Amino acid sequence: MRKVILCLAIVLIFVSLAMAAEEGELYGITLIFGEDKMSISSVDIVEGFVPETVDEGQYTLRVVGFSDELLFETRFDFNPGVSFSAPPTWFDEEGNQIYIPDTSPPVINVSKILFVPYFVNGAEVEILEFDVIITSFDISEFAVCNQNGECESGETLEICPDDCVLEGEVGILDEEDVGGELEVVHGNWIYLIVGIVIFLVLAVCFLIFWIKRKRSARNR
Fold first, then answer.
1. Same domain, 154 and 131
2. Are 101 and 161 members of one domain?
3. Residue of 164, 130, 169 whose CA lies nearest to 145
4. In the chain, where does DSSP find H-type helix?
5. Which of 35, 153, 169, 219 has the fewest CB neighbours in a 10 Å radius?
6. Looking at the structure, do residues 93 and 195 belong to the same domain, yes or no?
7. Which residues make beta-bridge pairs with 135?
8. Is 108 helix (H, G, I), strand (E, B) or coil?
9. Angstrom distance (rounded) from CA 77 to CA 56
10. What distance in Å separates the CA atoms of residue 140 and residue 209, rounded to the nearest whole number?
11. Could you list the residue range(s) of the whole structural domain that residue 8 is in?
12. Are residues 94 and 115 in the same domain?
């Protein structure tokens, strides 16, 4: 029984490792809302878990590539409300407001950070409200593939198939531009490896359990 529990614990560990494989690079997008308008303050690259897309919300966030293709889209809400702290001089010792300004108090900028998947060919982040772009931000500095049809330094066949193609197809891959090596697209191999390891662990556990049970039957 203990060996069975140990085998199940090992399987759970590998399942956890498979879930951890979902962690990767993300865009950390900081939004600022103030003076009745929204803007993108900054975009950074961070490590984290890939979030799920949302289908409901007042605003839409899009990540667009160099060829204007839609790479990612999600929706969100942003209700900052009014954020204002009145100075203490506006109140008396008992807390009653004794001063009322002639104009509306300023609204303090409120921020919100959204995390979306990183794309090697991401060129721009767009924020839309009712299908109308209200602000955008250039993220081309974080891109690896600029989709200009040329296999440039830093681009490889694996991550930039649009720019780096094999000889005999549309275009020629220049080995000098990719460090003299042709990289092969492996796909999401981590899941295959984890699946094989889990299968082998289960097979070994079953074999141990079967041998132990057979020996017990002989000793009776």
1. no
2. no
3. 164
4. 2-20, 189-219
5. 219
6. yes
7. 127
8. coil
9. 8
10. 56
11. 2-143+186-219
12. yes
Report the number of distinct structural domains present in the chain.
Answer: 2
Contacts of 110 by beta carbon, 8 Å cutoff, 6+ apart: 32, 33, 34, 80, 81, 83
DSSP codes, 139-164: -GGG-S---SSS--TT--TTT-TTTS
Tokens for 80? 């900052």
- Cα distances from 42 to residues 32, 56, 103, 118, in angstroms, run 9, 24, 31, 15
Do 168 and 207 sit in the same domain of this protein?
Answer: no
Residue 29 and residue 118 in contact, taking contact as beta carbons nearer than 8 Å:
no
- Total residues belonging to the chain: 220
* Local mean pLDDT, 10-residue blocks, the chain (220 residues): 58 55 84 84 91 88 95 87 65 80 66 93 95 95 91 86 65 41 40 74 78 72
Q: What is the pLDDT of residue 74?
A: 95
The pLDDT, as a whole number, for residue 97 is: 78
Which letter does DSSP use for residue 54 in this model?
-
| CA–CA dist 79, 75 (Å, integer) | 14
Nearest CA-CA partner of 38 in 78, 73, 76, 74: 78
Residue with tokens 């090697």: 120
